[in-house]
Amino acid sequence: MARTIGLAAKRRDNNLMILIALGANQTSPAGPPAETFRAALARLAEAGVETLALSRLFTSPAWPDPADPPYTNAVAQVRTALSASALLAELHRVEAALGRERRAVNAPRPLDLDLIDYDGQVGSGPDGPILPHPRAHERAFVLAPLLDVAPDWRHPMTGETARDLLKMAQALGNRAFPAQINLP
After folding, report:
1. Backbone angles phi, psi at 53, to 5 degrees
2. Are 123 and 115 in contact (CB under 8 A)?
3. What pTM value is reported for the model?
4. Which of 62, 91, 143, 163 could form a disulfide with 113 if both were Cys (CB 3.0 to 4.6 A apart)?
5. 3-178: in CATH 3.30.70.560
6. Residue 76 or residue 103, greater confidence
């Protein structure tokens, strides 16, 4: 079940549905992944990004090298006045502040923040983010926690539910498991 922070995770007419995925498989200057997530959300709050709801923590095997440490994952529903482009820039700033270095694709990392959905916007341009996230629909480690905070979410391009997408991802062998740790 989602941990509600401030307001209920249910969408209200005056709230945009903005979803951010959090992932990590290394410690950061803030500590292990759960502490890193807490620090990331605090830094985002300082930039005007309010966390409305946060999922349970999930674990998933590292990919493409399962010998790397497993990932801890979560999804947050947030509210902000920032545009999608400005929010993505802020996510990258917070990643860097907490030790993320973009050296290689799919490399282990202390923090990964992905903009999954920005109120159903669809688009990709030279100056804006690709929305919705281009691979979220294939990733159980995104979809399982997403169901905690937005059980009625539908993919903006296909209309498929998160539950149906998760079943398809699991059928392909993608798994995510509830972690034994949760943010208080």
Report:
1. -155, 150
2. no
3. 0.84
4. 91
5. yes
6. 76
